[in-house]
Amino acid sequence: MATASRLRGLGAVLAVSGATWAAVALVQPPASASGRGSAGLDAARRRIADPAAAIPPREVQESALIGTSVINPLDVLVIGGGATGCGVALDAATRGLRVGLVEREDFSSGTSSRSTKMIHGGVRYLEKAVFNLDYGQLKLVFHALRERKQVIENAPHLCQVLPCMTPCFEWFEVVYYWMGLKLYDLVAGRRMLHLSRYYSANESVELFPTLSRKGHNGSLKGTVVYYDGQMNDSRLNVGLACSAALVGATVLNHAEVISLINDEFGERIIGARIRDQLSGKEFDAYAKVVVNAAGPFCDSVRKMANKDLSAMICPSSGVHIVLPDYYSPEGMGLIVPKTKDGRIAFMLPWLGRTIAGTTDSNTAITMLPEPHEDEIQFILDAICSYLNVQVRRSDVLSAWSGIRPLAMDPSAKNTESISRDHVVLEDYPGLITITGGKWTTYRRCC
């Protein structure tokens, strides 16, 4: 468990702001990016890489927001401290913009810390792209595979390459998954992590001892192993926030936006009224543009600008469970190719335990979503037929639920069929909303 021990050790170190310089390497802006230029970008990189660099204390951050005014506004005020919001703040700050970010709870306290911990292109999305001739899904996979490699390179101490095993109980499945995963490699191109390959039944059981040799469709014919990325999502998110602060952004957690501020003509958003959740103090922060990156709560922010705006978020519940370490070996994940609802389920080693998930079902938007018993049982049922150990409800050590903020498609019958691509729109002057997308592609959302 060397890797797990190393990650646990680093967790304590990177929790303090002085060491968060390494939390994430500075993102590579597009060639067309303007602002600071290469000299300013190099200075920002050096600032992030400086182990002696310190993040300004909370009082200084709050004072910087209070010090804004109609004639001295921020360039950008970001609402939401998840992956997208912190990514926007970091990207904007490194381009020389004056940036502020506020988060109602703590950084990565919501959806961004409740993922499958995977950085992946989306094997399921590629399958849909091929069989539905869906260029949108193919484009999503292409961009996600490119970003997968970049995120791993940006934060190698928080991200790693993880082989994932796909069991095959029919020879047709061997051919089908081998061809599909070779296409996955092909789409990745030079951003490919490692070549996928076939393993015989004996080799597969040796690599994954708890893998069953018997399935519903017969005996194990072998497995196809491909490679994706794994990350520590919450620490990566906090790293983005700290990196943004180090290059000049003002970031403040436990600061709730309670209303938006209009200009004197009532035609444009020019700031937000903010409440410090720790002290109860309220103040105004002004900005030329307000970016709404509030995840599942995007519609709540949009309705502050115009209560008649129609909802654009279709919330989806994603539940994961934590199981003992013996369910999966260190350094190898298992993919359940198709669950009852047509999804792919993962069973992955994680910090000395095993995480399994996920579900995809309609849900209500709440601050603290909780996993339901039927969702936990769904995951246990999905993995039990692929294992040679008894899968017991009592083995579940913990569980969590995250709300995916999917951009709504009126024609979609369920959340599983909705694209995971992001949406950027300005449906009220001065307020830009970013929603949807995947953890892997947070940089593209920015």
TrEMBL record:
It comes from Musa troglodytarum (fe'i banana). GO terms for cellular component: mitochondrion. Residues 75-443 form the FAD dependent oxidoreductase domain. One of its GO terms (biological process) is glycerol-3-phosphate metabolic process. Keywords: FAD, Flavoprotein, Oxidoreductase, Signal. Its EC number is 1.1.5.3. This is Glycerol-3-phosphate dehydrogenase. Belongs to the FAD-dependent glycerol-3-phosphate dehydrogenase family. It is an enzyme of class 1 (oxidoreductase).
